[in-house]
Specification:
By secondary structure, the protein is an alpha+beta fold. It is built from four helices and six strands, in the order αββββαββαα. A two-stranded antiparallel ribbon has the order 1-2. The protein is globular and about 55 Å long.
Length: 161
């Protein structure tokens, strides 16, 4: 029996990182990618159960008003924070997409494919693709190191072409 000493419950700490979608403890990572150079400019991390848009708001990332951002549908409401944003339109049962909406979604997706390719290159290192089995404290440091390696290697390949 503990006399006046409260034992820290490990489950309370782990609960913040539990993602119900993936049914495991996860760390969410977010990256800002330059579309022209395909370099990773900025990263942000949070518990796995945190929503993408909430993580964006929490990061206080100042995006210049002249820059157009391409986001996925996880960032609904970003136009309140950044006016020049392009994201695909969602369809619903009652409101199907028009041909113009589908054409616009296809255009946005064809531009976003380069950003997804950057994420696939990061997943080659298996820090994001598989379970992260090290300390969560060091996840940000290791992800930033991999982003730097990606930027260095990819800039070499572009210079050779």
């Amino acid at each position: 029996m503990c006399l006046g000493r409260k034992i820290k419950n490990r489950n309370n700490v782990q609960k913040r990182f539990y993602s119900g979608k993936k049914k495991r403890h996860t760390v969410k990572s977010q990256a800002v990618v330059n579309l022209k150079t395909e370099d990773i400019l900025c990263t942000n991390f949070g518990p796995g159960r945190r929503h993408d848009f909430h993580l964006f708001k929490q990061s206080d990332l100042g995006i210049h008003p002249d820059i157009t951002t391409l986001t996925d549908t996880g960032y609904l409401g970003i136009h309140h924070y950044h006016a020049r944003n392009e994201q695909p339109k969602k369809r619903s049962k009652k409101n199907p997409l028009t041909k113009e909406d589908k054409k616009e979604n296809r255009r946005i997706s064809s531009e976003r494919v380069f950003i997804e390719n950057v994420f696939s290159r990061i997943k080659r290192f298996h820090i994001v693709a598989d379970r992260y089995r090290n300390r969560r404290k060091r996840f940000g440091l290791r992800f930033n190191l991999l982003a730097a390696i990606h930027n260095k290697e990819f800039s070499k390949k572009q210079g050779a072409l």
